[in-house]
TrEMBL record:
InterPro entries: Bact_Polyamine_Transport, MetI-like, MetI-like_sf. Belongs to the binding-protein-dependent transport system permease family. CysTW subfamily. This is ABC transporter permease. It is a multi-pass membrane protein.
Length: 274
């Protein structure tokens, strides 16, 4: 009689082998490269030591300390004011620019379209230096509103680009139908076109808001004396070393940026779904 039992070698060879493709390994390595420093930053933000070199214990002290730091709160207020003003003005101008470029034909339109999106590809340092030279030529003193004006330059381009993308997916016959039914061009824009563009406008505004809050170069070149934005305040503190309170502030900014990005994407998805 032949035994039905298989030798151990055959049993081992019959087990399925787990294979990891190079695509999976590359993806894991890529995400690890991007997010591992953020995890280390978040870990050391709870470090009880005043220096990030060694772990001394777990504490929420640095997060609590942030809310009593007058310099951090003042710079945060300045950044929020600059971002809200720049994004609000850019939302109006960017929406009108995107609609005008999509609906009207005029001489030099291609050239104007290319120039409008130049701030997206020009380095921040070039925009900062150009803005500073412009303000110096016209003897405009540096203050809070020069920061706002400089931020409008790149916020306008981002919002116009997002709105243009949204506008390309809309049915142009809806606005024409409203005009045929007796609506004025202004009524057709406000009651038909604008509600459809609203998800794109909100997404562009959220993106521009995050970029404005994050900007350092342009703000540092155009800020007057006594006006520090939050990135400028952070940079001034890390010259002597990164402390846990800066780690805690960075974690808060990362979380808030993630929430804003999620809300913008959710709003855009809901608009496309509707």
């Amino acid at each position: 009689m032949t035994s039905s039992l298989q030798p151990p070698e055959e049993l081992l060879s019959s087990k399925p082998k787990v294979r990891v493709s190079w695509q999976v390994a590359f993806t894991v390595a890529m995400f690890g490269f991007m997010y591992l420093p953020i995890l280390v930053l978040a870990f050391y933000s709870f470090n009880q030591s005043a220096y990030s070199a060694g772990w001394k214990g777990f504490t929420f002290e640095w997060y609590i300390k942030l809310f009593s730091d007058s310099r951090i709160l003042s710079s945060l207020q300045t950044s929020l004011l600059v971002a809200v003003c720049a994004v609000g003005i850019s939302a109006v101008l960017g929406t009108l620019m995107a609609v005008g470029l999509a609906k009207y034909q005029f001489r030099g339109k291609s050239l104007y379209l290319g120039i409008s999106y130049l701030p997206l590809i020009i380095p921040d340092i070039a925009i900062a230096v150009a803005t500073l030279v412009f303000l110096a030529v016209f003897a405009i003193p540096l203050n809070l509103w020069t920061i706002v004006a400089a931020h409008i330059v790149f916020c306008l381009a981002y919002i116009a680009l997002v709105v243009s993308t949204r506008l390309a997916d809309l049915d142009p016959h809806l606005e024409e139908a409203a005009l045929d039914l007796g609506a004025t061009p202004l009524q057709a824009f406000l009651q038909v076109l604008l509600p459809q563009l609203l998800p794109g406008i909100v997404s562009g505004c959220l993106l521009a808001f995050v970029l404005s809050m994050d900007d350092f170069l342009i703000s540092s070149f155009t800020a007057g004396s006594g006006f520090n934005t939050l990135p400028m305040e952070i940079f001034s503190r890390i010259r002597t070393g990164v402390k846990p309170d800066i780690n805690a502030l960075s974690v808060i900014l990362i979380v808030m940026s993630g929430i804003v990005a999620f809300l913008g994407e959710f709003w855009r998805y809901q608009g496309e779904k509707n």
